Amino acid sequence: MTRYAIGLGSNLGDRLDHLTSACSAIEEKLGPIIVSSLYETEPVGGPEQGAYLNAVVVVETSRDPDDVLAVLQDIERSRGRERSVRWGARTLDLDIVAGPARDTERLAIPHPRAAEREFVLRPLVEVWPEASLGDGLTASTALSRVSGQGVDRLVTDWLPPVSRTMANGLLAIQFALIAAVGVGVVVGGTMPRELGIWVVAGGAMAAMGLVLALWASVSLGPAMTASPLPKPGTTLVTVGPYRLARHPIYGGLFLVLMGCALVADSLLAVSTAALVVPLFLVKAGYEERRLRMIHPQYRSYMETVPRLLIPFVF
Prior knowledge:
Layout lengths: L1 E9 L4 H16 L2 E3 L2 E4 L10 E10 L3 H14 L14 E6 L3 E2 L4 E2 L8 H10 L11 H5 L7 E5 L9 H24 L8 H24 L27 H17 L2 H28 L3 H7 L10
Antiparallel strand pairs: 1-4, 1-5, 2-4, 3-4, 3-8, 6-7
């Protein structure tokens, strides 16, 4: 049995589906695989094109390098790979980046540029850090020499079935905090007897938050879900309040909770409502990593709309 490291990349069509299908096909045709985290990468060289999803898998097989290359090219063709433009956009790119030394006109192992490319080295180090890249250089050593090539790790758990433990945990904490604010309002609050500054400010905050959350929910349409796992098959929503903030529902909920806590003059409710902010920041980060997996344009959307929770505020 011989070990191979295979680099995977896609920046055309359903990038995630291309990579998950490739992993299934590699496992079916060559044997069990070890899979790295999933990365998003700015394109290197070639014409202007969209960002790539990248990963590396390691497989051990009795097949010789030419057979492995033939298998990988068959998988590429099955996903509509075309080779009309050098370093151009592609539905699926499968490269042998490390394995038994080979240097022929058809195939070079290790890949001649593997030691220079962070999008190869970072996932490769996860699954085979001591992989030889030639001239006595290992993947770990090569990675220490490169950086700043626009490579972002998105998730470690990306092959189906995706674990829902983290998503469900975040959702449970969110509902628990909302309930705790309600308890704080009822137990620790008082009915306002006059329109003081905090009552007026809290009431206005709650009203604005309710409008923002409802507006954002309607704008999402079929993509609406309480879970931080995006619904499959939906399009990226950039209209309505999503032109102003990337997670306006979270921002609206915070404003409602804090507004109600201020109106009730409950220190317990105010303190609990404040805890919602770090939770929503974590939940939004979790959700955005998965949105970037599904929507190639999400990276540029983040740059266009820098505010995360509340329009015009933060």
